[in-house]
Design a protein that fits this description.
The chain is mainly alpha-helical. It contains 24 helices and three strands. The protein starts with a helix and ends in a 23-residue tail after the last helix.
Length: 497
């Protein structure tokens, strides 16, 4: 190596005037990464833990590429026993530098150093596990994911690893900032083409979408397939279940059911379907048809193995016969335990009670608790305590009142039919804020759909389809029809993932 390492690491200065052009920045960043790839391992270890240590000279936020290469080699040396191994464990000097880097790196520079990014993210999890505290990796890994892609909408192998880590440590809320973002892209087969003279075509362009710089050759992700995506949605649904956000969990499970299946169901689809059936009781009030876009043959296979769950959903709909649901639940106790769905089954049982009480509000403005207790088979005190819990948790817009009237002596459940009254009442300002937040989410999703449509028009399959349509209609001079239904059997675009 003809240039000393410290001088080489400082060669790439992204804020310099000569790199203001996005094309020049792109060329310089690519060349810089190639140079660092050719530096041998011993050079990275020189001067470690001395005042001249390059990790003390470099700024992880300004010299992110150089810092990432150096840090990765230092941690690898510590793991291999070539330096102090304790320095890489949580609390050690290298660990602290790793956390600082993952929380402050320049996301533009990391678009060009995908392999270093991925290795450092993986180190955060593996080192935390080695120390017996895997939860310590959650915050830095999540920060890294959001810094690289603020939408976290381009799916990577890190998505699966991260959600699995959150479930393992029961850190369900920690996964929510990632799960709440829509997945709008998968790592493409080839990187976006850089076009000379078009500033937007380079990865460092400000308008570049994450699906253009996170691809199969960028190094930001291991190879992903359909099963990885299904696992992400199943695990994400389980995290939402831990947060009792049943509607979000239901949507995640539907993603699994409608994915390409080639007429064959797998274990993830079976697990998703069983939970999906129970969640429909909680969200929709009973059994619901599988989305039409799901593979009919695969759904038929998993339904044949889910009869006990469908029986529960059927019994749930009979609010006037709560004993039927209890009988089905008791009969399948071993099945729920083996499938890990006992907690969800209990939620379904509780939900039927809530649905029964909620339906009373359609008929009564107030009803004695003793009457409810007789119908559900329990004491008045137990029923009153349960109703109070429903009110406190926001499931019931009502209140319990003590009355001395002869006809309704004791505790009475009084419903609030006006949504502007009662414990669940929202002010006009709160309603406007909710609408505003929903509008922001809808606009963000619309932008991602528009971007996905644009990228679709650049794919080989789309272009070939357009050519076929042009040949068919060229003679007639009709307007070009770009519909995908050309009479040929549809190709499964996910099959080679």
């Amino acid at each position: 190596m003809t240039v000393e390492l410290p001088a080489l690491l400082l060669q790439f200065q992204p804020e310099s005037e000569e790199l203001k052009s996005r094309h020049k920045y792109d060329q310089a960043a690519r060349q810089f990464v190639k140079q660092l790839d050719n530096v041998s391992t011993p050079h990275w270890l020189k001067g470690a833990d001395t005042p001249q240590d390059v990790l003390e000279v470099l700024n992880p936020a300004a010299n992110s590429i150089a810092y990432a290469f150096t840090l990765r080699h230092r941690i690898a040396a510590a793991i291999d026993g070539k330096s102090d191994a304790n320095a890489a464990l949580p609390g050690g000097a290298l660990w602290n530098k790793l956390v600082l880097f993952l929380e402050t790196f320049d996301p533009i520079q990391m678009r060009y150093a995908g392999q270093e990014y991925k290795r450092l993210v993986d180190y955060a999890e593996s080192l935390a596990r080695d120390a017996g505290s895997p939860g310590l990796a959650i915050a830095p890994v999540r920060s890294a994911m959001i810094r690289l892609d603020p939408t976290t909408g381009t799916f990577t192998s890190t998505h699966v690893d991260f959600v699995r880590l959150c479930l393992e440590t029961r850190s369900y809320a920690a996964a929510e900032p990632i799960l709440d973002n829509y997945i709008h892209s998968l790592p493409s087969h080839i990187p976006a083409i850089v076009r000379e003279g078009f500033e937007y075509s380079v990865p460092c362009a400000e308008v570049t979408r994450s699906g253009e710089y996170i691809h199969r050759l960028s190094g930001h992700s291991d190879k992903v397939n359909v099963q990885d995506i299904q696992e992400y949605y199943v695990l994400g649904a389980m995290a939402y279940l831990g947060l009792r956000q049943f509607t979000k969990a239901l949507h995640f499970l539907e993603h699994v059911l409608v994915m390409p299946a080639a007429n064959v169901a797998n274990g993830l689809m079976l697990e998703a379907y069983k939970k999906w059936v129970l969640l429909n009781c909680l969200v929709s009030g009973g059994a619901k048809s599988v989305p039409r876009s799901a593979n009919a043959t695969a759904i038929k296979q998993i339904r044949s193995a889910s009869k006990a769950y469908e029986a529960v959903a059927e019994a749930y709909s009979h609010l006037n016969n709560m004993s039927k649901l209890k009988a089905q639940i008791n009969a399948g106790a071993q099945t729920w335990a083996e499938d890990g769905n006992t907690g969800l089954i209990k939620a379904v049982s509780d939900s039927q009670m809530r649905a029964y009480v909620s339906r009373l509000s359609r008929t009564f403005s107030a009803i004695p608790v003793s009457n409810i207790a007789r119908n559900v088979g329990g004491s008045a005190d137990e029923t009153a305590q349960y109703l109070e819990t429903l009110i406190e948790e926001g499931h019931l817009n009502a209140r319990l009142e003590q009355t001395d009237k002869p006809e309704t002596a004791g505790i009475v459940l009084r419903f609030f039919l006006d949504p502007a009254q009662g414990p669940l009442a929202k002010s006009e300002k709160q309603q406007q804020q909710a609408l505003f937040e929903q509008t922001l989410r809808t606009n963000a999703l619309a932008d991602q759909v528009k971007d996905a449509d644009y990228r679709l028009t650049l794919t080989k399959e789309y272009i070939e389809n357009v050519r076929r349509q042009q040949k068919r209609q060229g003679a007639q001079g009709d307007a070009m029809d770009t519909a995908w239904d050309d009479g040929a059997e549809e190709e499964d675009i996910m099959v080679d993932m």
